[in-house]
């Protein structure tokens, strides 16, 4: 049976998110949900020298009380691009593959992007190419509420405040090498870049081993 998965848009999404992209036959990325802060839509979590670190993209304030994800604009507030890139360099500069991939990611922190959804999409396409997965991804044209038996809705499940161990029985994070593993132990389900910078081409094997 073909499996179709629905996901929210996400900034450097966690490993859990990419297991869905790897295993699903088809993926719909939501454009018509109402934007919510403190979600992976504009935030990722990496492993810094001080432990898990959350990086958030500021967004422009809207006059509307609710705004669709596809309409959310990226703000230039706080020089966030420079801060995020410095954080990534500090966290992963000594990882095995950061230098190998740095030139692929650096342009995303030098050029301005108008819409958050488009920025997330472009990053996701890059990461899929680097990991060597080719998911069939489509964008939603409406907000769907009811799902068939072969459709799975992870739009609100893959969330920084949701316990994946309880809510996502198919995801079992496979431990892998991390720069600060001796200091903090293995930190599961961080941003996909944590996996990519530490494991490089073997990231695909970790995704495969994290889905049951």
Helix count?
Answer: 8
Overall body shape: globular
Radius of gyration (CA) equals 17 Å
How many strands?
6
DSSP strand content: 5-15%
Which regions contain 5 or more consecutive residues with pLDDT less than 50? none
SSE arrangement, N to C: EHEEEHHHEEHHHH
Query: Total domains, how many?
Result: 1
Distance between the termini: 16 Å
> Numbering strands along the chain, what is their spatial order in the largest sheet?
5-2-1-6
In helices, the fraction of residues equals 25-40%
Category from helices, strands and their pairing: alpha/beta
Average pLDDT works out at 96
The main β sheet shows up as: 4 strands, parallel
Concise structural overview:
This protein is α/β, with parallel strands linked by helices and 212 residues long. The chain is 33% helix and 12% strand.
């Amino acid at each position: 049976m073909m499996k179709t998965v629905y996901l929210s848009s996400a900034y450097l999404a966690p490993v859990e998110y990419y297991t869905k992209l790897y295993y699903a036959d088809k993926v719909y990325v939501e454009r018509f949900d109402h934007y919510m802060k403190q979600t992976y839509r504009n935030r990722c979590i990496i492993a810094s020298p001080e432990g898990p670190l959350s990086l958030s993209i500021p967004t422009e304030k809207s006059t509307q009380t609710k705004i669709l994800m596809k309409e959310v604009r990226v703000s230039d507030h706080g020089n966030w691009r420079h801060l995020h890139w410095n954080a990534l360099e500090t966290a992963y500069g000594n990882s095995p593959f950061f230098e190998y991939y740095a030139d692929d990611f650096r342009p995303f922190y030098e050029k301005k992007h108008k819409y958050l959804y488009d920025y997330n999409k472009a990053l996701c396409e890059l990461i899929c190419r680097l990991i060597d997965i080719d998911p069939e991804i489509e964008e939603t044209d409406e907000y769907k509420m009811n799902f068939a038996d072969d459709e799975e809705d992870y739009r609100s499940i893959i969330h920084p405040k949701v316990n994946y161990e309880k809510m996502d029985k198919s995801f079992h994070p496979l431990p892998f090498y991390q720069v600060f593993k001796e200091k903090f132990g293995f930190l599961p389900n961080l941003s996909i870049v944590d996996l990519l910078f530490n494991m490089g081409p073997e990231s695909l094997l970790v995704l495969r081993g994290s889905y049951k």
